[in-house]
Amino acid sequence: MTVIEPDTTGGDKPGSDPQLRSLEEILDAVAGAGEGKSVSIGDVLSEIGTRSFSPIILVPSLILVSPLSGIFGLPTIGATIIFLITVQKLLGRPHIWVPSWLKRREVAAERLEKTLDWLRKPCAWVDRHTRRRLSNLQSKPARLVTLCLICLICLIIPALEILPMVTSLFATAITFLAIGLLARDGLFTLFGYIWTGASLAAIWWLVSTGVGG
Q1: Are 53 and 122 in contact (CB under 8 A)?
Q2: Relative orientation angle of helices 186-209 and 166-183, to the nearest 10 degrees
Q3: Shortest CA distance to 84 belongs to which of 74, 75, 73, 97?
Q4: Domain layout of the chain by residue ranges
Q5: For residue 79, with 0-12 CB atoms within 10 Å meaning exposed, 13-18 middle and 19 or more buried, which class applies?
Q6: For helices 53-64 and 41-48, what crossing angle results, to 10°?
Q7: Which of 88, 101, 146, 156 is found 20 to 30 A from 194 (Cα to Cα)?
Q8: How far apart are alpha carbons 156 and 179 in whole angstroms?
Q9: CA proximity to 82, closest of 68, 66, 63
Q10: DSSP one-letter code for 165
C-alpha cells in the first residue's frame, strides 16, 4: 500500500484530524460517518476532518463516478462542494468551511453503503499502484494549475446534468487529479489532464451531432 505524505502546498496541515493514507481508508472514514438511516455532508466532514483538503475533494468525485451520480441534482451538489474546497485550498485556508445548508444535505445510509462497496475494488487497485513519480507534475506551480483545472471542471458540470453519464466523465477526471494531489503521483495527474481533454472532445461530439438532444 502506498504511504501518502501530508500535503504542504496550500492546504492539508497537521492537526487533530486523522491522516488518511489511502483511498480505502477514505472509504472507511465515509462509511463510519453519521448514524441512523441517512448520512449528511456534515457527518462526512466531521469524520474525515476539516484540514484534509485532498480527501474531501476526492470523496464527492468518487461518488460522482459511481451509480449514485444518477440522482438528479447530485452532480451539481458534488461539483459545488469540490469547487468550494478547491478554492479554499488555493487561498491557503487552514481548514475547510462549508455553508450550513450544504452540510445538511443527506443521502440514505443504505444507498451510500452500496456505493462504497461498489468503489472498494477500484480504490484498492489504485492504492496498490500509486507512488511518487513524474515529480514535475507535482511541483507547487503544477499543483496550483491542477487545482485551477478542478475548479474549471466544477463550473462545467452543473450545465451537463441533462446529458446522461457525461458528468461522470468529468468526475473521473477530477478523481484522477485528486488522486495525483493526494498521493503526489504525477502519472495520475497526467491521466486527469488526458481524461479532461477526452471528456471535452466527447461533449463537443455530443453537441455537434445532436446526440444529447
Answers
A1: no
A2: 170
A3: 97
A4: 23-209
A5: buried
A6: 140
A7: 88
A8: 20
A9: 63
A10: T
178 CA to centre of own chain: 6
CA distance 13 to 89: 11
171's grid cell: 468526475
Span 129-178, pLDDT tens digits: 999 999 899 999 999 999 999 999 999 999 888 776 788 889 999 999 99
Looking up cell 466544477, which residue turns up?
Answer: 154
The grid coordinates listed for 30 are 465515509
Average pLDDT over residues 64-79: 84
Cell reading at 15: 492537526
Q: Which of 30, 115, 29, 26 is nearest to 70 (CA)?
A: 115
Q: Tell me the one-letter amino acid at 18.
A: P
- CA angle at residue 94 from 140 to 34, to 5 degrees? 115
pLDDT band per the 50, 70, 90 thresholds, residue 21: low
Q: How many residues can be counted in the chain?
A: 213
- The model carries a pTM of 0.83
